Amino acid sequence: MRMRAVISIAAAVALTACGPREDVTEIQVQRVFGECGAEIGDRTDAENLDSECGVMTALINAFEAQNPDVRVRVNIAPWPGYDQLSARLASGDPPDLVTMHVSSIPDYQSRGLLAPLADGLAQAGVDRMTLTPTALGGVSRDGELYGLPIDIWAPLWHINMNLFRQAGLVRADGSPVLPTSADELLDQARRFTEATGKPYLVQSMANERAAYTRNLYTLLMQQNADFFADRRRIDLTTPEARRAVQLFKDIYDRNLTTRNQDYSAATAGFINGGGGVYLVGTWMIGDFEREANRPGAPLEGGYAVVPYPQLYPGRPASFIDGHAWVMPVRDRTSREREAVFRLLRFFAEHHLDWSRTGHLPTSQAVIESPEYLALPHRASIASLAEIGEPLPSDVERQFAIQDIIGDEMASAITGRKSIDRALADAEHRVNDLLFHIPETSNSRP
User: What is the DSSP string of 14-28?
Assistant: First the structure.
């Protein structure tokens, strides 16, 4: 009898230890950015990290260390994460917080799948007025907030300054000579290729349709083209759109760019000195800066990065997107809700740490701070906080639109279609997609 009692007590203790503690609230987070637990471990300091995965992992570790009454269960989804989110929503068991591209928020908000955050953020001590106007506009709809923006990202010109020096395209102060018009770009690209034997542009043209579209958006914005005046209709059969596509076709036809490279090949090519300017986003700054500091690397002592140069009369502009935390609609206890907004407040207080990834902070105070501007190359891209422009915040299916436009641009640039035909087809396909989106109670009339 005594042995049975001992066994029963031991079993009860074991079950208690394995079960959830009543004083700990668990919240579920779905994020992208990859898996790096083996590398980061329990690290809570993000100061010397610059990868998205590393900084995100360290920040969540730090939150749990500072908030022992909250357990954050993290589900790492393959990029971009929307198939996994849709499956969770369909099952009726969505996560508490999800990393989402700002451009994707309208797809979920319009169907009533995202909870409004304004009141909860205010109660948690997060002042929306500390956010940059661009960041705030991206997550706002009808006066409500449907996300906490954590960054702004944009395509950039990443420049191999060693090759620019070889081509005579460096100013006396050491800065790159950048084009101020389409004609200047073509002329400088020709001179660069003649001097170096390498293409001026490095582009991921294979299986990377979104890059084409982002280029087009930027050049349309620089020409003051109002191509999305109606959220249900895009206008691409315009002189502005034709000029933009013609420029990239000229670059392609004159062999001034890499060809047939996917993202991995283009990135490796730029690192290994395969071209002058790589058109890729903010997230690569840390990787290229490390190469610039690696002895013997093709980029050693020769890396610069800037926003897209202004090529057309109009307004200084660059297409941007961003990442935000969103909260799917589901039943939550008061403790779960409080824990969710505590985590959101934590991220709002760590804009500087997240900006180490290369993305721009969404806090006005941080983007103007000496600490941020002291990070490598940040002063060179800080203007994006003012000139960066997303698509209108009520345009739905932006990922699908990127694929359609990019597909048609690829056809025009490589000569499979005429430019006019490709633009007309892109316009028709996008507008057909938007026309067939059902109106919902959460969509604007």
Answer: HHHHHSPPTT-EEEE
Q: What's the pLDDT band for 161 if we cut at 50, 70, 90?
A: very high
Residues 58-69, mean pLDDT to the nearest whole number: 98
Q: Look up residue 393 and give its two tokens.
A: 């915040």
In the predicted model, is pLDDT for residue 190 greater than 70? yes
CA distance 269 to 310: 26
pLDDT for the residue 209: 87
Distance CA 224, CA 240 (A): 9
DSSP string, 129-186: GGB-HHHHHHTEETTEE--EE--BB-EEEEEEHHHHHHTT-B-TTSPBP--SSHHHHH
pTM of the complete model: 0.92
Q: Find all residues with CB under 8 Å of 114, minimum gap 6, and list them.
A: 105, 108, 146, 147, 326, 327, 328, 329
CA distances from 260 to 103, 193, 202, 257, 264 (A): 28, 18, 10, 10, 12
β-pairing, 70-76 vs 25-31, is parallel
Element (H, E) at 71: strand 70-76
* Amino acid letter, 433: L
Q: What is the pLDDT of residues 336-346, one digit of tens each?
A: 999 999 999 99
- Are 94 and 330 in contact by the 8 Å Cβ rule? The answer is yes
pLDDT for the residue numbered 5: 42
Answer for the pair 286, 357: CB distance below 8 angstroms, yes or no. Answer: yes
Q: Where are the alpha helices (DSSP H) in 167-302?
A: 182-196, 209-222, 239-253, 263-271, 285-292
Q: Residue 16, Cβ neighbours under 10 Å: how many?
A: 9
Rounded to whole angstroms, the Cα distance separating 352 from 22 reads: 34
Q: Is 423 helix (H, G, I), strand (E, B) or coil?
A: helix
Cβ(105)–Cβ(139) below 8 Å: yes
Alpha carbon of residue 300 to chain centroid: 27
Largest Cα–Cα separation, the chain: 94
pLDDT(21) > 90: no
- Could you count the other beta carbons within 10 Å of the beta carbon of residue 313? 9
Question: For residue 20, what pLDDT band results from cuts at 50, 70 and 90?
Answer: low
* Mean pLDDT, residues 289-299 taken together: 97
Interstrand relation of 303-306 and 201-202 (parallel, antiparallel or unpaired):
unpaired
Q: Is the pLDDT of residue 89 over 50?
A: yes
